[in-house]
Amino acid sequence: MKQNASSKAIKEDGIIPKTGYSDVNGLKMYYEIYGEGKPLVLIHGGGSTIQTSFGRIIPALSKQRQLIGVELQAHGRTSDRNADLTFEQDADDVAMLLKNLDIPKADFMGFSNGGMTTLQIAMRHPQLVDKIIVGSALYKRSGAPPEFWEFMKKATIDYMPQQYKDAYIKVSANPQGLRNMHDKCAKRMAEFKDWQEKQLKSITAKTLLIIGDADVMTPEHAVEMYKLIPNSQLAIIPGGHGHYIGEITSMSNQESRQPFAIPLIEEFLDKK
């Protein structure tokens, strides 16, 4: 196992993380560590970085927790491999990173695609998992309207949110990798195949599902997931995709209030 210190630390509200790279299944995987306490692993959404998904909640959550932010294959500061993106491989990569960091068990929080990776971690690596927080995720295609899937089939980098483009270019050592990352993300979703109900039923971790009432994923689908995952809770919060955590594309720079989900997340994590 090899780890290297990074010189590209991002300050979040005055907090400078410990950063590094770890050799993970053929990748140089980038990670950031904030605070002290029980580990909570943060897994970003598709096309994103640690900061674009979680920058607005890191300061609050790191007061009582050790946060471990990761960047997945081809995203942000992490290298790519000659293979398509899959949620299963992302889950295995995160599991290997934790092994490299000598973390035997943690809580996990994933947003959007990161929520789907979090579900896969709970299914594939249950021994690593205490609790999971799954934001704006789905497990089958009926969880999003047909136009979402049509968009993914025709997606081009021109339609990628500018905030994601700027964030990637800001931190990546290979700005030319932006199109590659976009295309791999779009391909994964365009070709997504339903997971089986028995996979969700197999999850033993305590689970908090969060979705916006105007999210990409439908409230009906969130309820369906809630019924399938044995030890789960569900929160449907007013707002769109990621608004409840202050995800970068969902809130204007003028919005300074605490993201809605922080009290819910803290209560869920603290509960025995």
Architecture overview:
Residues 38-175 form the AB hydrolase-1 domain. This is Alpha/beta hydrolase. Keywords: Hydrolase. The chain has a 9-stranded mixed beta sheet, with helices on both faces. The chain has 272 residues and is α/β, with parallel strands linked by helices. Helix 5 runs antiparallel to helix 7. The radius of gyration is 17 Å and the shape is globular. It is 34% helix and 20% strand. 43% of the residues are buried. The model is unreliable at 5-9 (pLDDT under 50). It has helices at 50-54, 58-61, 87-100, 113-124, 146-154, 162-171, 177-190, 197-201, 219-228, 262-270; strands at 3-5, 18-24, 27-34, 39-43, 66-70, 106-111, 129-135, 206-212, 232-237. It is built from 10 helices and 9 strands.
Q: Gap between N and C termini, in Å?
A: 34 Å
Radius of gyration in whole Å, from Cα? 17 Å
Name of the CATH class: Alpha Beta
CATH topology title: Rossmann fold
Helix content: 25-40%
Shape: globular
Largest sheet: spatial strand order: 1-2-3-5-4-6-7-8-9
CATH architecture field: 3-Layer(aba) Sandwich
Indicate the structural class.
alpha/beta
Q: Give me the CATH superfamily.
A: Alpha/Beta hydrolase fold, catalytic domain
Order of helices and strands: EEEEHHEHEHEHHHHEHEH
Q: What count of domains describes the coordinates?
A: 1
Beta strand count: 9
Regarding quaternary structure, what we see is single chain
Strand fraction equals 15-25%
Determine the number of helices (DSSP H or I, runs of at least 4 residues): 10
Mean pLDDT: 93
The description of the largest β-sheet is:
9 strands, mixed
